[in-house]
Amino acid sequence: xxxxxxxxxxxxxxKKGKHSFQExxxxxxxxxxxxKYNLDNISRTKAYATYYNRNPDVKWAFxxxxxSRNAGWNMTxxxxxxxxxxxxxxxxxPIFLTYEMANWLIFDDAYPQLLLxxxxxxxxxxxxxxxxxxxxxxxxxxxxxxxxxxxxxxxxVTSLIINEQNLIQEPVLNNRKFQRKVFGTSVYLFQDLGxxxxxxxxxxDGRLYGHxxxxxxxxxxxxxxxxxxxxxxxxxxxxDSFFHFSLQTEPTGSRFDYERYxxxxxxxxxxxxxxxxxxxxxxxxxxxxxxxxxxxKHLEKWRKPVSLKRNxxxxxxxxxxxxxxxxxxxxxxxxxx
Length: 337
Known about the structure:
Layout: H1 2-14, H2 21-37, H3 41-54, H4 59-77, H5 83-86, H6 89-123, H7 138-150, H8 153-173, H9 176-183, H10 186-194, E1 198-202, E2 208-212, H11 219-233, H12 239-248, H13 256-262, H14 273-276, H15 292-295, H16 299-303, H17 317-336
Helix pairs in contact: 1-7, 2-6, 3-4, 3-6, 4-6, 6-8, 7-8, 8-11
């Protein structure tokens, strides 16, 4: 395949050469900063947003921050008023751990890439050959080099979406424990089929936009979702509204972050994330193989841009609130019975 030869060349080149004293210092510093900001959902969300504010040409960082907010809201839902009525802790904890592990893995892989690009800008020379020290796919080394040469922002967003979704496929989506305790449960199937899980982008004037998640286990579905979310987030008519929300709303992990803009009479039903979850220690396992050598045949399909239909950019505030009420009614009925 035409793609594979490029990645094989990068793989072979990675086996050769030593780093300078300065480059080794870069590697050490990046590892320390990645660990520092990868403590929990809040620190990740803020690190992505802060990075985007410094480097607005890396649009994926803003997408990652807004999606990370959604992960936090889903995490605290599990400790909120309704889910605690519906599910005992033994069923809720594996769901939380699924969100936590996926987001930890993505940050651990992506943040060194972001910092190396920033260093490359500072020293006016590409440093992407150092990505091997962070076990980042050969695919992303090629993509960062391409971005450095062309400045193609849209391709970089798509490439990072493709990479990070491939990254979590084996350790999270195909994880036997999560298959048994999360993805194979009636709770997950109910949410998936009913479109109760939704990634939302709020605005300060109380509007919600986004996409519901269906077939989350399928790699291609998640990549398509990511591309749709990116297209929505950076749409000309809405991008400033989403950015102002991000700037002016401190992430707490609670849905009240945006619910307070929807209706002044609403009260908090989900807690602060740091009030209910401790820092979860993770063990970084060196990946035995690079995903790109088994998935390169799909790259052309995954790279195709999405064009949002007009109805896919429409406000979904009422729909989302209706879905939340449906879920709450079903939980209340189950609890009453």
